[in-house]
What does this fold into?
Amino acid sequence: MSHRAATRLAWSLCGLSVTLTALSLLLLFLNLSHPGTHIFEWWLGNSLVVIDVSVGAIVASRRPENPVGWLLCLFGVAVSTSSFTAQYAIYALLAQPNSLPAGQAMAWIASWILPIMIGLQVFYLLLFPTGRLPSGRWRWVAWLTVAFVVAGVILSAFSSDPENGLGPIRNPLGIESFTPLYDALLYSIAPLLFVAVALSVFVRLRHTVGVERQQIKWF
It folds into this structure.
């Protein structure tokens, strides 16, 4: 990819994330105008993803060979998509029923994005700042993350009550027996992955010098 193409793609992903976040906040305002409507619990934290995606766009446009910038951009798109689909579903199904089309479809999309968000976050932490694993010993974390994302998306897409912040709205394609399987995966593997990548950052800090060490200390 040329430098110009990388720059355009990086800032396009940033623009998409910022746009979805802005639309999410607009829908939040509309939902708040209907007392008693369920409020998406993660709206504030998810809105701050514009910081992550902006940093990602800067890094990806200047160092397109480093996957950390691209992972930050994709993380921003995933989080903002989660917010938008959740707020849309709440408005279309609870605040103003049948006022917008595809409310159930948006609820279904919102149900399976969380494993992708976790996977992208784990990867950019694991690869920061060089874009490479700390050493070959950490390949198991990368492969476990991939397996978690694949299994998590499948199970959450058909879980009757996924962790999507939609309150009374249930997954339209939910199957009751999938819920305990998804919960077991989410609450056992996700904490393990975050503990592992936290350790990887300290391992890097212990064995690096110069600019890379300063980047990790800043991080």
Observations:
- The two ends are 28 Å apart (CA to CA).
- The CA atoms of residues 18 and 88 lie 16 Å apart.
- The mean pLDDT is 94.
